[in-house]
Each structure stands twice: as structure tokens, then as C-alpha cells.
């Protein structure tokens, strides 16, 4: 996984005012998106039995202002979450 992607997701969480005490979802996998320079990220919240799919650009332009980090607008982005059923809401077991 690219360090740029992880860093971009980290910055996205900061701009969404994610409290450090809140539990973060697990990133399960990344696919190429349907548009140029986009990716689809699959996250899971095991305690709630929810899987979320996020369509996002691979790179987001930003600038630093007196008020902090500001992201430029883009036309790509969506999130869809579904309830996972039939015992699928378990974290993956580590390989032995």
C-alpha cells in the first residue's frame, strides 16, 4: 500500500474532525477506481458489523493557511456502507 494513500487517508480523518479517542475502522483492501486516478477503499467496523466502500481520488491538492490545512474541491467522492450478515462480521484471522 502506498505511503501517499495512507497519509492522504490520515489527513482526511483529521479534516473530518475525528476525535483521537474514537475507534478507527480497519482498512481491508484497495481497488483501482472506475475513473482515472481514483481508488475504492473497503473499511470494516467489526463491532458494528458494517463494511464501507469509499470512492476517493488518489491525490488531493491542499494548501496550508492560517486556519490549518485546507483541501481543494474535486468532483469525485462517495461512501456506501452495508450491514454484514451471516457471520461475515468477524475480523480476519492472522495467518499462522
Structure write-up:
- The radius of gyration is 15 Å and the shape is globular.
- It has one domain.
- The protein is mainly beta and 96 residues long.
- The chain is built from one helix and six strands; from the N terminus they run αββββββ.
- Helices cover 14% and strands 39% of the residues.
- The model has no long low-confidence stretch (mean pLDDT 77).
- Strands 1-2-3-6 form a four-stranded antiparallel β-sheet, with no helix packed on it.
- Strand 4 (62-65) and strand 5 form a beta hairpin.
List the helices and strands and how they pair.
Layout: H1 3-15, E1 26-32, E2 38-45, E3 50-57, E4 62-65, E5 68-71, E6 78-83
Antiparallel strand pairs: 1-2, 2-3, 3-6, 4-5
Alpha-carbon Rg, integer: 15 Å
- The general outline is globular
Which percent band covers the strand fraction?
35-45%
Taking strands numbered 1, 2, ... along the chain, how are they ordered across the largest sheet?
1-2-3-6
Overall mean pLDDT: 77
Going by helix content, strand content and strand pairing, the class is mainly beta
Low-confidence stretches: none
Keywords summarizing the entry:
96 residues, two-stranded antiparallel sheet, 1 helix, globular, 4-stranded antiparallel β-sheet, mainly beta
Explain briefly what this protein structure is:
The protein is mainly beta and 96 residues long.
Amino acid at each position: 500500500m502506498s505511503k501517499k494513500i495512507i497519509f492522504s487517508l490520515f489527513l482526511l480523518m483529521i479534516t473530518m474532525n475525528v476525535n483521537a479517542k474514537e475507534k478507527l475502522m480497519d482498512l481491508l483492501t484497495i481497488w483501482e477506481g472506475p475513473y482515472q486516478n481514483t481508488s475504492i477503499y473497503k473499511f470494516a467496523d467489526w463491532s458494528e458489523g458494517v463494511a464501507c466502500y469509499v470512492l476517493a481520488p488518489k491525490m488531493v491538492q491542499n494548501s496550508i493557511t492560517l486556519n490549518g490545512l485546507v483541501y481543494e474541491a474535486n468532483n469525485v467522492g462517495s461512501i456506501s456502507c452495508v450491514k454484514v450478515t451471516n457471520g461475515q462480521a468477524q475480523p480476519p484471522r492472522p495467518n499462522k
